Amino acid sequence: MSRVHADDASRLAAGGFRRRFGRLTGYWLALPGGLWLAIFFVVPMIYLLSLSLMTGDFIHGFTQTFHFATYGHTISLYHDQFIRSIMYAVIVTVLTIVLAYPMAYWIAMRGGRNKSSYLLIILLPFFVSFVIRTLQWQFILADNGFVLGTLKNLHLVGSGFHLLATPVAVICGLTYNYLPFMVLPLYVSIERLDSRLMEAANDLYASKFQALLRVVFPLTVPGIFAGVLMTFVPVASDFVNAQLLGGAKTTMIGNVIYTLYLTNNDYAGASALSFTLMGVLLIGIFVYARALGTKDVMEAAAL
Amino acid sequence: MTPADPPYPRDPSILRGSMQRRYSRRDMLRAAGLLAGTGLLAGCGVAGARAKAAPSDYWSHQKPTKYLDWAQWPLYIDTATVKGKTVHPSLQEFTKETGIQVNYQEVIQDMDSFVGSIRPVLASHQSTGYDLMVLTNGIYLTQMTELNYVIPLDHAMIPNFFRYADATAKNPTFDPGNKFTVPWQSGMTGIAYNPKYVKRPITSFDDLFDPAFKGKVGMMADNQDLPNLALVGIGVDPAKSTEADWRRAAKRLTQQRDEGLVRAYYQQDYIAPLSKGDLWITMAWSGDIFQANASTPGLDLKFVVPEQGAVVWTDNLCIPLYSQNPVSAMKLMNFVYDPKIAAMIAEYVNYFTPVPGAKKYILDDAKAATAKADRTSLEQIADSPLVFPTKAMESKLYRYATLTPEEVPVWNLIFEPVYES
């Protein structure tokens, strides 16, 4: 008897606690995340926006003048690099999807017991510094390196042919560096698929290819979306690959922002470009999310 | 789960809560955010980074210490290996003579990132942890002096400099009266080529524009060497150049790029492609080519001072603001101008030494050298115009343009689009 009473009492107490604090529990739990966002995202964003509207110079300081013309001025100076960055990002994203989808599919469906080993292999290059990994491509793609040197000896390409210092090299480097960011979300979304769905499709006379196209692919769209978010955005603002593998006309917007900020100390111009880049990327992502259907985006966000 | 669980929550407040209109709070937060945001936007500014100039009696308050933190570029001082440990004999002499321990750190890779890393520290009134640093003349050094981030030198403490320094080291255009700096070493920006691929003599700046080298030409990706060498190349002394000259030089460089002559614009990394044949001809620093040839057997890169002239730059010793051991830094400056010490350094680094008297000591060392190879290489160094420039060569060397803070953005806007396109 007494045990029942105690149980009831604790349940009552818990109920009271829940009634009093329950409404706020979610907010308390969200507090660390919210604070993190506020300190490391909202405050810097406002600061960046504010800085982009200031005028002045490094030595004498910057004052707020709401000088919106900085935006027009920097975009008119650097629109080539801007458009190039977006183009590279689109190409790289498509390439990573094409490369990553079969990889993720194979690991998820055929990986068997070794799934985690295969994932580790994909992640292994990440144990090496980003810059070093990119520098390796300088060796791989060198004019007389083991790839082009061999091709030249076989007379498959002309002796003047080169890849380094061309857009191809930059896109190769970017694709290589961001591939795992596409493989992982795709793997998660493919791995979660119920294999009975494929069996059902086959029972309903869908060929393997049709099952892939009409059942597997639509169900993994959230994974693709997450992958696109994780590749497109950082690729568009990357500056290392263009710096190390690029040539005379491969400068990306990240390089320009870097120079404006660190070499020229043009904080206003650099902030304006960063803010424009962020705006363009956000708009692009929202348009893309709309095209895929908002519901899927929510699922992707929950991934 | 009991079978009697109803399909809706038992607590009616949950139902009520889920049906209530909940936008009001969010709207209020949004309005508050907007208000705060606008306030913040208008409110903040960025204070000027200029520090107060060091007081005129600064040096009378400084006490001698037994320690020195020195920020330096890699491979820029004499080095020896003793019992598997890398040591710097000239610094060992310094410690023996003065009792000052030197913490020699090769932390400067390029001016961009080094100045970029110490500037915010100084702007927040903190010590950089260095007492002595080596900065190249140019936009950054001018900026550092404009900001009062370097301490004016105490000339009474560097008698060796006034006794032994070359005339070119004294009173340079970028630091009149050596108020803030004394030279460490100088070097040239000219043209280098790989004779394995370039089969004709290179003599002129215009050789960088030869269609025969299409796609195999390297240029520098910076707002100092590239513009200044281009100015010299079109026959203008950078120190006397005007904005119209800058535009002419930039036009020439843009043409070169758009005709597909330039393979890429390089920062420090042109030696590897030049050795491998990815580049045939490139803008280069004199010391780099010497060291590349010395460290790679069989490599025979050539360095040329173009007939139009080359750009000479100077790396300078200076003391950062908030230095903890400024007296030690002054003592070191004086010490390295002793011709005997200057010779030790010159024998190793092979850049222009600011101490002509070092030549005698290098020749003495050559006489004393037991191995024949050592003797020849020391004699070569003593005769090298890359260490002790001849009068004929000096007449072809030009300093960087000295830009006022107002001119810098104009200059950058003209030249940066060339290499950042």
UniProtKB/TrEMBL annotation, chain A:
Record InterPro entries: MetI-like (IPR000515), MetI-like_sf (IPR035906)
Positions of transmembrane segments: 27-49, 86-106, 118-140, 160-190, 211-236, 267-289
CDD domains the UniProt entry points to: TM_PBP2
Topology in the lipid bilayer: Multi-pass membrane protein
Residue ranges constituting the ABC transmembrane type-1 domain according to the UniProt record: 82-288
GO BP, sorted A to Z: transmembrane transport
Organism domain of life: Bacteria
Record's keyword terms, sorted: Cell membrane, Membrane, Transmembrane, Transmembrane helix, Transport
GO CC terms of this entry: plasma membrane
Compartments it resides in: Cell membrane
Family recorded in the similarity comment: Belongs to the binding-protein-dependent transport system permease family. CysTW subfamily.
The name this protein goes by in its record: ABC transporter permease
Automatic annotation (TrEMBL), chain B:
GO cellular component: periplasmic space
Keywords assigned by UniProt, alphabetized: Periplasm, Signal, Transport
Gene Ontology terms: biological process: polyamine transport
Protein name as annotated: Spermidine/putrescine ABC transporter substrate-binding protein
Location relative to the cell: Periplasm
Keyword Manganese attributed: no
PROSITE patterns: TAT
InterPro entries, per database record: Sperm_putr-bd (IPR001188), TAT_signal (IPR006311)
Molecular function terms, GO-annotated: polyamine binding
Species in which this protein is naturally found: Leekyejoonella antrihumi
Keyword Signal listed: yes
